[in-house]
Amino acid sequence: MPIYCDESGGVGRGVMTLAAISIEEDDADAVVAHFCEISRLSGEIKGSRIDLGERALLFELLGQKPWAATISIAISALALHPGEDRGAHDIDIYARLLKDAVSYIIKGSNPCVQVVIDDGRYGPETLALIRKDIADLIGPYGTALLDLSHRRSGLQIADVIANTFFNHAMATERQSRMAAIVAPFLESGKISLRILSSDTEND
Predict the structure, then answer these.
(1) Mean pLDDT across the chain, nearest whole number?
(2) Are 24 and 149 in contact (CB under 8 A)?
(3) Which long-range CB contacts under 8 A does 27-32 form with residues at least 24 apart?
(4) Cβ atoms within 10 Å of 52's Cβ, excluding its own
(5) Pick from 198, 1, 6, 31: nearest CA to 101
(6) CA-to-CA distance for 164 and 31, rounded, in angstroms?
(7) Residues whose CB is less than 8 angstroms from the CB of residue 138 and which lie 6 or more positions away in sequence, other chains included
(8) What is the mean predicted confidence (pLDDT) over 131-143?
(9) What integer pLDDT is reported at residue 157 of this predicted model?
(10) Of 4-8, 74-78, 121-125, where does mean pLDDT reach its minimum?
(11) Residue 13 pLDDT > 90, yes or no?
(12) What's the order of all strands across the beta sheet hosting 67-75?
């Protein structure tokens, strides 16, 4: 199965989350198409643009397909070191979250895995280096590529999952509702949760 990766939040928000979801492309397309049919929404699905009912619907439809996801989270976005550039720190945290999530989800998987990374957050040179890091991680038989989320249903689903866990981590009035939506998937093991720390190692 392809693995689709997208993030939410950032160092300026105090929390950054990254979702890596393994799901067949046809299944992802079917989930998004069914979601749009029921919700009557059109265009790209973004976690930051859908309401709680729509979010719950997407998870419900997703639950009807085979998939697994890993969510890596940096709480307080790991504090900057003295003199460290905020932009460079944001990139570093993103790269660490991506590597952590992908490393965890590919354990024991087919070596011909394909990792698709959202192409929307950073500049092309930075993303090219991050893509190379992931390509090195998954080895010579796998592939890592960048794509725009409006072209990939899997990336849109990853965006919603990452955004849901971002809101789950934030102390707001929506926190408990986010927790209720994802609880069944955490309990069943469909979603694995990873908390990034300053000394996190892939285990």
Answers:
(1) 91
(2) no
(3) 27/65, 27/66, 27/67, 28/4, 28/152, 28/153, 28/154, 28/157, 29/153, 30/65, 31/58, 31/61, 31/62, 31/64, 31/65, 31/153, 31/157, 32/153, 32/156, 32/157
(4) 14
(5) 6
(6) 17
(7) 102, 106, 111, 113, 115, 144
(8) 93
(9) 98
(10) 74-78
(11) no
(12) 143-147, 114-118, 3-10, 15-23, 67-75, 191-195
Q: In angstroms, rounded to a whole number, what is the distance separating the alpha carbons of residues 117 and 97? A: 12
Mean pLDDT of 58-70: 97
Number of Cβ atoms within 10 Å of the Cβ of 160: 26
Structure tokens at 135: 């390509």
More confident residue, 153 or 13: 153
Global confidence as pTM: 0.93
Full DSSP string of 98-130: HHHHHHHHTTTS-TT-EEEEESSSS-HHHHHHH
Distances (CA, A) of 146 to 50, 75, 122, 198: 24, 26, 11, 27
